[in-house]
Structure formats: structure tokens, C-alpha cells
Amino acid sequence: MQSEAKIHTEHGTDSSPQGPGCSLRHFACEQNLLSRPDGSASFLQGVAEKSRERLIRNTCEAVVLGALHPRTSITIVLQVISDAGSLMACCLNATCMALVDAGVPMQALFCGVTCALDSDGTLVLDPTAKQEKEARAVLTFALDSVDQKLLMSTTKGLYSNAELQQCLAAAQAASQHVFRFYRESLQRRYSKS
Amino acid sequence: MKETPLSNCERRFLLRAIEERKRLDGRQTYDYRSIRISFGADYGCCVVELGKTRVLGQVSCELVSPKLNRATEGILFFNLELSQMAAPAFEPGRQSDLLVKLNRLLERCLRNSKCIDTESLCVVAGEKVWQIRVDLHLLNHDGNIIDAASIAAIVALCHFRRPDVSVQGDEVTLYTPEERDPVPLSIHHMPICVSFAFFQQGAFLLVDPSEREERVMDGLLVIAVNKHREICTIQSSGGIMLLNEQVLRCSKIAGVKVAEITELIQKALENDQKVRKEGGKFGFAESIAKQRITAFRMEKAPVDTSDVEEKAEEVLTAADPPPDVVSKPVLWTPGTAQIGEGVENSWGDLEDSEKEDEDEGGSDEAIILDGVRTDVGMEVSNTGSQEAPIVLSDSEEEETIILEPDKNPKKIRTQTISAKQEKAPSTTPVKKRRKKRTAN
């Protein structure tokens, strides 16, 4: 079984910096766009190789119901088309959509959200590449859709315990938007009208 | 994954259809599938779709020292990769033949035809030249990879802008894109490959074969032509024998097709240029078709994070305080220090364990360890009492010791189950070791 996902994170649309209030950049996704694999999705957001692969794999293993398909190998191939920040979160989102497109049974959907903490402690969600570079810490979380529980986290930089909890709470709030986006795009695809 | 073999029925059906001048997708013999070119936000990034075959092209540049025998020329590097998502048969390490063939053909088409002026890539003769690298990734394989790849390569090269450089005497200044507008590459002409598939020993030919047609073809003829009708590369593979009229006819057809494709490319490049100049939205974001049912977009959305701080506070106060980590490094000799105490090897200590279980005395370790120890102690004794009567492993290393559930929980642990013991023995041996050291 193969799911492929193409990822774009792009910032070509607007170049205004994101303000102190948190917002997610605009999303777009396209499903079933490749004819050879069983399922494919292209996810566009806004805009250490093996470790990233391992993180994505562990997240998928936690949600995919592998017991329903014994002796089956599920291969996920991700191709980064362009990177404009929040790459890991975009990879996770694309993976989830591709798995849904391929019809792989899962316990829950998952999404990725990235937070950046800059030097004065302001939290920015879904940072651009420039914001990530200038941030003091960048945290990426994978959250599940049922209870917004944490599936995977990968962080880089220095932050306190309180900041971690704040970022996690903010990511949980943001994940609601991502899940709404999934739901609406799937509804659009499968609706009869 | 191995390629699923083509059934005989399908093969016969395709060949019969071709004999009757019919193609599966309804095209005529000389028709190309629809070509769509979309550009990314960065210069030099493009995706070309030839029917369902999709190729991603990306150009990048770097300043390097030139080759020794070509001191005044820049370096061009091409790389085509067959991603595993393109077809299940493309596993890393399994595609060498096809990959080498495609890469070689692309190199001959683009490098040997001198479509890019390499002299213009020289910055300081003999010291610094531009190395232009073209990376192509096949994303979906539905036949005719070479045409799609050559179109993607030339489009990406035409779209690319390299940073501006100025040389004053010995000083070379590289300007960032914000300081000075990047400069396009100097391209003389655009060679594009056109593929012809032959069937029934050269009796029938098809232009732009799809994946099914490629599977049943006898041979392939690839001609790279530019819009001035100059042949840049020609390659025939598969061992078919062609007459010279056939080859000439194919080259004429190729000339016509390339003229059309070049016009399409020019239009796409101009459109993108216009959109960028007018400040409109560009990039892959815009090229996701809005009306397609499988595509969906959502605008920038604000997220309410006002209660984030309160939630974080709650979580923190409800959580247990972190354990104190007291590390008192003990310096044995210069260069050798010890922090904490490791796990003691408990093999062969069975005789001693009875004597030392009574030592519950005070510790000079961190206070928290006691807490942990007692917790684990409780767990272990529980498991001891539950699992003592269960007969477990078939291991040959089982020793025959009488199980005494209440007095020596440690004994039970070491004999029966091997897997669960890591936590428990780590705490109790601490006491033992202290005793031993005082003995030493």
C-alpha cells in the first residue's frame, strides 16, 4: 500500500510579517492527484533527514490500525517541493491526508503544529522560515484529533517548563483549525452536491 | 515492490488497438497529452505535468572553483531522480538501468547542445565560476518520462535567476536578492525531447506514449530538437530497425511538436513574469485549481490564544513537582568522575541477597530515591505475589530455587521473568554495593 504526499510550504502570497497575535497561514490541499500510488495528497501551508523520517513514522505507527492489515507494508513517500517554514508540521499534515486518501484505517487523524518562541518570550504559531531562524526555540507538536492529545513533539532551542505548556496549549487550540480544514476538504470531496 | 506484470489480454488488446489506429485515451497518432506548467514561489522551481506524468524541477547555483581543463567555463550538473512515489517499482537501489539511461540522455540533450552559455557563468577566470545544478524529481509515472523531464529542466533553467555579482580588480561582491535584482541565465535555445514509440517491428509509431503503451512497445526513438529545427540529440533504443525515411519523418514531426511546446513554455514564463511584476499572487499556492473537487483551501485564520496562559498555569500546578536531581560527582582520579551510582550486575549474588534484604537503613543518597525505591518495592512485591505461582519460561537457564513469596521478592524476580527486572534490581543493589565498598 502506498501513500504519497507532496508538501509545499509557501510564503509567496503575502510578505507581511505575522503580528504578535497568533494566526495560521493559509492552507490548501489537493487529494488523489497522483495516479500511480494508492492515495496521495498535496498539502500547502502558509510556506536532519533520518530523524524527521523516524518522527513521522512513530506518529503514524501510533494511530494507524496495523492489526487490520497484517503482513502489509505501508510506505509513505514525502517530497518537499518548497520550504517556507513549519516544514515538519506540513509533513505531518500531508501524511495524514495521504493516509486518509489511501483509505488506511486509523484510530484518529493527526495534525502538526509548529510554535516559535522569540527572544522576548512571544509565542508565534506557524512561523515562517525567517521567524524560525530568529527564534529562541522552535517546537513542533503532533496532536490527535479525538482529544488533542500529544502524539509526538520535537523541539529545538531553550525554553522553560511554563513556556512548553503554553506552546502546547496554543498548539491544541490551533489544531482545531487544522482539523476543521481536514473535515471541510473531505466533505467537499465526498459530498454529492 | 515488483512491477505488476502486464497480462497477455491487455497486451493483445493494446496492440490490436494500435493496429487499428486507436489509442486508449482517444488521442491521434501524433497528439501530445495536455501539458501544464506551474511555477513555485522561488525562481527556478517548476512542476510540469504531461498528462498524468508529473516532474518537479529545481535549479540552484553556487560559486565554486572551475574544472582544471575548463578554467573559464561554469559547471552544469543535472540529476534526475525517480521518486518512489512515481511508481511502486521505483525502489531506491532497484532502478539503475532506467535511471542511467534517462540521466545520460538528459545530459546529452542539455549539456552537449550548449543551450546554456557557460562562458557567461564565469566570475573570475580560473578561480570562481557558477555551478548550476538542476534537480529533477519524477513524482508520478504515466509514461514518457524523458519528455516531461526535458521540458521541466529547460523551463526551470529559463525561470531561474542567479544572484548578481560584480568584480572590481581582485574583489568579488555577491549581492543578495534584496540588494540587487537577480539575473537570469543566458540561454541560447531550448532543446526539447520528443519520444516516438514503435510497434510491430517499426510498422506503427506513436508520439508521447503513455505508460501502458510503453510496456508493449518494441523500441523507442528520442529526438531532441529546438524551435529552429536543429536536432540536438537523437537516440534509438530497443533494437528496432528503422528505415531512413522513417527517421526523417520523425524528425519533421518532432520539429512541429517542439515549436508548439516552445510557444507554450514562452507563454507560461511570460504569465508568471507578469504576475510577479504586478505583485499578484504567485507560486504553487495559486496553481492548485480552485474548482477541482479534490482541492480545498482555507484563508489565513487567526487562532485564539488568550486562554493559553491560564491553561498552562493549571497544567503546571496540577502536575507533580519535578524530582530533585542531585548530582554529587565523586572524583576518583583526575579524569575519572562518577555521578550517581549505576546498576549493579546481579549475577552470582544470589547467596548474598538473603543477608542484605534486612538493611533498610538510612542512605546518603538523595532523599527522593527512597520514595522511588519504596514505590518500586511495592510494585515488585505485588508482581512477586501474583506471578510466583505462574509457571513461565521454557528457558534452559532456569535455576531451581524454591520460591518464597514474602521474604525475598528479589529471588523471585531474578529467576522467573527476565524482561521486567530492569527497574527493580537497580534500586536494591545500591544498598549492597555500599556495604561492599566499606568492606574494601
Automatic annotation (TrEMBL), chain B:
Oligomeric form and interacting partners: Component of the RNA exosome core complex (Exo-9), composed of EXOSC1, EXOSC2, EXOSC3, EXOSC4, EXOSC5, EXOSC6, EXOSC7, EXOSC8 and EXOSC9; within the complex interacts with EXOSC3, EXOSC4, EXOSC5 and DIS3. The catalytically inactive RNA exosome core complex (Exo-9) associates with the catalytic subunit EXOSC10/RRP6. Exo-9 may associate with DIS3 to form the nucleolar exosome complex, or DIS3L to form the cytoplasmic exosome complex.
Keywords: Cytoplasm, Exosome, Nucleus, RNA-binding, rRNA processing
Biased composition, class Basic residues, residue ranges: 430-440
Stored Pfam families: RNase_PH (PF01138), RNase_PH_C (PF03725)
Compositional bias of kind Acidic residues: 349-363
Protein family according to the UniProt entry: Belongs to the RNase PH family.
GO biological process: exonucleolytic trimming to generate mature 3'-end of 5.8S rRNA from tricistronic rRNA transcript (SSU-rRNA, 5.8S rRNA, LSU-rRNA); nuclear mRNA surveillance; nuclear polyadenylation-dependent rRNA catabolic process; rRNA catabolic process; TRAMP-dependent tRNA surveillance pathway; U1 snRNA 3'-end processing; U4 snRNA 3'-end processing; U5 snRNA 3'-end processing
Ranges where the record places region Disordered: 335-365, 395-440
SUPFAM superfamilies: Ribonuclease PH domain 2-like (SSF55666), Ribosomal protein S5 domain 2-like (SSF54211)
Compartments where located: Cytoplasm; Nucleus, Nucleolus
Gene Ontology CC, one term: nucleolus
Biased composition (Polar residues): 414-429
Gene3D superfamilies: GHMP Kinase, N-terminal domain
Native organism taxonomy: Eukaryota, Metazoa, Chordata, Craniata, Vertebrata
Organism from which the protein derives: Myotis myotis (Greater mouse-eared bat)
Domain called Exoribonuclease phosphorolytic: residue spans: 32-163, 189-254
PANTHER family hit by this protein: EXOSOME COMPLEX COMPONENT RRP45 (PTHR11097:SF14), EXOSOME COMPLEX EXONUCLEASE RIBOSOMAL RNA PROCESSING PROTEIN (PTHR11097)
Name of the protein this chain belongs to: Exosome complex component RRP45
An example Gene Ontology molecular-function term: mRNA 3'-UTR AU-rich region binding
